[in-house]
Amino acid sequence: MTIYLVGLMLLFAVAMVVYSLWPKGQDEGDTIKRRMTGRTAKNAVADVREKAKASVAKRVMEKVAPMAVRPTTVTNAEEMSKLRIKLTTAGFRGEKAPMTFLASKTFVAVLMGIVGASYCWMKGPPLSTTIGIVLSAAGFGFLAPELWLKMAIGKRSDFIRKGLPDTLDMLVISVESGLGLDAAFQRVGDEMNKVHPILSEELQLVTMESQMGIPRSEALENFATRTGVDEARSLVGVVNQAERFGTSIAQALRRQSSALRVKRRQAAEEKAQKTTVKLMAPLILFIFPAILVVLAGPAALKMMEMFANQ
User: Fold this and answer.
1) For residue range 182-226, what is the model confidence (pLDDT) as tens digits?
2) Where are the domains of the chain?
3) Is 0.70 surpassed by the pTM of this model?
4) What is the CATH number of domain 156-271?
């Protein structure tokens, strides 16, 4: 009964926050009527939808984040720079991404602390046990965003690593067909949008930086930093070296693509070899006992019956 009351109280608090931040329908209706005087209804509704794109959660974070980020504020500029690089590698490039991430650590820690306190309130353990449970839950909540960020970085890096060989093949075809390297990056970024969207976005960013006047070598270095993949750094080094010494970029890209394919095949073979070792645990814990029961069960029952008759 107590846990139901706690859940209802939390649900009521969340509902009140959502209601206070929810946009009023009358204001939206007046906006539509006012905008329909000079434009069509379709354009007016589209404008209203554009303004409503910011979700309630985003509005809550914009108001709560500055307060929640204070306990986890990174005072060192070097640490803040490392955090921005990590978030960029995970795909979060927004200006408020570091503040939101630091605020999430405080928010999750407080939430887990409340959950631990609620559990102790229901079970009624000693005070020392209660303090330990609450502090452990809060500490786990504080570290949970870091674990999630590492998982996000690893997942995104895998996507980029798997898409690099195909992308390099497209770059080789584009360069050998007569396109310049910048035009090849732009073309491949557009073509690979549906197959490898993450890598396509990174290539489009390289093109945009080059068009803004940033040197190509620096744009490629930024690409390697954003991805955080060793294969991307190797690709950047090969392209910069080919441009510096005047060698064929197409041949360099072809060799790099071949090397990446060999590396990807070796990684797949390594995972296949590890499968046998990883299957030992489920075989021993789940499959062998079932086989033992099926094979030895009838014999064991007959032996028990024979001993009982004697």
Assistant:
1) 888 888 888 888 888 888 888 888 889 888 888 888 888 888 888
2) 156-271
3) no
4) 1.20.81
